[in-house]
Design a protein that fits this description.
Layout lengths: L4 H4 L5 E2 H8 L3 H9 L7 E2 L5 E3 L2 H13 L5 H13 L3 H43 L8 H6 L1 H4 L6 H7 L1
Antiparallel strand pairs: 1-3, 2-3
Helix pairs in contact: 2-4, 5-6
Length: 164
């Protein structure tokens, strides 16, 4: 369950289990992020229970999103610390903007890689449509002599890898 706008602006505190449930990460991951300084509990009870504000859920989501792009945790920590270490709002904003600009460039690069991969898969599936009707025993010689491949200007990389 995501954090509501009302919860974000309240002093409500959440136990670690609730934060884990809302963010879809494990307790171990939350503790690990805390050990790296990526998130901090807002309060610790006398019994040692860590309590978190709703903002911790936002931070965890940001961490997950950036990790999905293989952004190193050290870079994420630097991004999250920009406001703490900046002398002015402008300085903090410049630091965050620079990090996000690099992240955007990486995301665009990944998107292009995924589009290329998608195209390769679609081409391979197109070739395989004919192969589904083939009764010959599969071999390099038979497959490369097949009209399905010889009439093509370019054999998809996936098919080349499978035929060789």
């Amino acid at each position: 369950m995501p954090v509501t706008a009302k919860e974000k602006h309240s002093d409500q505190l959440f136990k670690i289990g609730e934060v884990a449930r809302r963010t879809g990460v494990t307790l171990r991951t939350i503790r690990y992020y805390q050990s790296l300084g990526l998130i901090e509990p807002a309060h610790r009870t006398r019994g040692g229970l860590h309590l978190y504000r709703a903002e911790a859920c936002d931070r965890i989501q940001l961490i997950r999103d950036m990790r999905s792009l293989d952004v190193p945790l050290a870079t994420i920590r630097d991004l999250l610390d920009q406001r703490k270490t900046a002398a002015t709002g402008a300085e903090g904003a410049r630091g965050v903007a620079a990090t996000l600009t690099r992240g955007l460039a990486e995301a665009e690069k990944r998107m292009q890689q995924y589009l290329t991969l998608r195209h390769e898969m679609a081409e391979a599936l197109e070739v395989l449509e004919t192969c589904l009707r083939c009764s010959a025993a599969p071999s390099r010689v038979v497959c490369y002599a097949c009209e399905n491949l010889t009439r093509r200007q370019r054999v998809p990389a996936y098919i080349r890898a499978l035929v060789n």
